[in-house]
Write a structure and sequence with these properties.
Blueprint lengths: L16 E3 L4 E6 L3 E2 L9 E5 L3 E3 L2 E4 L4 E10 L8 E11 L2 E12 L5 E2 L4 E3 L7 H13 L5 H13 L10 E2 L4 E6 L3 E3 L16 H9 L4 E4 L5 E4 L2 E4 L2 H10 L3 E2 L5 H12 L12 E2 L7 E5 L7 E13 L2 E17 L4 E6 L3 H14 L3 E7 L22 E6 L1
Parallel strand pairs: 17-25
Antiparallel strand pairs: 1-14, 2-4, 2-13, 3-12, 4-7, 5-6, 7-8, 8-9, 8-11, 9-13, 10-11, 15-16, 15-19, 17-22, 18-20, 20-21, 21-22, 22-23, 24-25
Length: 400
């Protein structure tokens, strides 16, 4: 059993550390930001949600606060996409602070794109699904032969309450981004974040045995195809588990139903997010998940998502839960299944680390371990054919 790199690390102490240009900062916005706002705020704020690790040590703790400003903003028009540029200039952790220069490098689960200078560009208004429907209707209406079909499509759109896509860039508090440091700076903060008090989980041999008795794979409900891998274990009461995911900003997924499927279709057509979007049912040892959670932003095509299954027994007095987590990165059409499916990031250890860092940030975790599973299958794919690449280990979190 070995310590998990995202949390169980030695503190860097209080000696000054040089943070090099190119360092990435994972942040969560504290303020709403809108490209179409008539007046931009004097300053914007965010919080670091994952520690910065250099040479195997935490140098900047999760929880450090950032301050910046909106350097450029342009609302969308009928022909031009919205634009937004943010720059962060101050980093503070209690009494320690530094002047920094950092711009956005990656958008988490967002429909927009960002270039190397940090300029965020929105979707093109006339290329959204709803705009294409309107364009198609206009073409049909111009032909007397198809005018009736155009009226029918318009009626269906109205009956389904389909709204026009909103092409402006609007990020609510809680939206997550990655910044890139553009100029090196000196930092003397050390490790003082929520992970600084994390310890190893006791009774190592029993934990290794518990982890390696858990099933490796989930299976689809209808066709029983092998699908996502289990990659996390939670040692927590039910109340602790639910409170932690709520505090971490994850949303319970809606159950699959006619209503949730219709809302999914609306979200896709309107080019927007659906924070409670449903998931397909995957089984573990023949059982459906007890809980399913996701975290997205402003597009249904991308989301972090996971399924949690209650397992028999307890460990260190806590109930045992096993979880499979993956990151949806896009939507594709499956010729085999004749339906639309999510594509995932094949590097599933990144999603394991995302879940760990989010839960560590809540301050509700007291122990952590990364347990090897030597018998994990290699060359695996999920039920829709996406490869699953992993070191095979399971991250274990012991709640307070």
């Amino acid at each position: 059993m070995k310590a998990f790199a995202a949390g169980l690390l030695f503190a860097a102490g209080l000696s000054a550390v040089q943070i090099p240009a190119g360092t990435e900062l994972s942040i969560r916005l504290s303020d709403k930001i809108a490209s179409e706002a008539k007046a931009q705020p004097a300053s914007i704020h965010a919080v670091l949600i994952a520690p910065v690790i250099l040479d195997g040590k935490v140098t900047i703790s999760a929880g450090a606060e950032l301050t910046g400003s909106v350097k450029q903003a342009r609302a969308a028009t009928d022909k031009t996409p919205a634009q937004l540029k943010l720059e962060f200039t101050e980093l503070k952790d209690d009494s320690v602070n530094a002047k920094i220069s950092a711009v956005v490098s990656t958008l988490d689960n967002a429909r927009e794109t960002v270039d190397g200078s940090g300029l965020i560009t929105g979707i093109t208004p006339n290329e959204t699904f709803s705009a294409r429907i309107d364009q198609g209707v206009a073409k049909l209406q111009s032909n007397d032969k198809y005018a009736g079909l155009a009226s029918l499509i318009t009626g269906v759109k109205q009956a389904l309450n389909i709204e026009e896509a909103k092409p402006d860039i609007d990020y609510d508090p809680g939206a997550e981004l990655t910044l890139k440091v553009t100029q090196a700076f000196e930092w003397k903060g050390g490790d003082r974040g929520p992970a600084s008090s994390i310890r190893e989980i006791p009774n190592e041999s029993a934990l290794i045995d518990l982890v390696n008795r858990q099933p490796f794979r989930t299976y689809t409900e209808a066709s029983h195809r092998p699908s996502d891998m289990t990659n996390l274990m939670f040692l927590a009461t039910e109340d602790e588990l639910l409170a932690a995911f709520e505090k971490a900003g994850w949303f319970p997924a809606a159950r699959l139903s006619a209503e949730s499927k219709l809302e999914t279709a609306r979200a896709l057509i309107e080019s927007r997010g659906y924070k409670e979007g449903p998931m397909s049912i995957l089984l573990l040892d023949g059982r459906a998940p007890d809980y399913a959670y996701q975290k997205g932003n402003n597009t249904f095509a991308q989301r972090h998502h996971l399924r949690i299954f209650r397992r028999p027994g307890t460990f260190d007095g806590k109930p045992v839960w096993v979880c499979s987590s993956t990151h949806d990165t896009g939507i594709d059409f499956s010729d085999r299944d004749r339906t639309f499916i999510h594509r995932i990031d094949p590097e599933i250890d990144r999603e394991r680390a995302k879940v760990v860092n989010d839960l560590l940030f809540t301050g509700m975790i007291r122990g952590i371990a990364l347990v090897a599973r030597p018998n994990m299958p290699e060359g695996a794919t999920n039920a829709t054919g996406d490869p699953l690449r992993t070191d095979g280990s399971m991250a274990v979190l012991l709640f307070r």
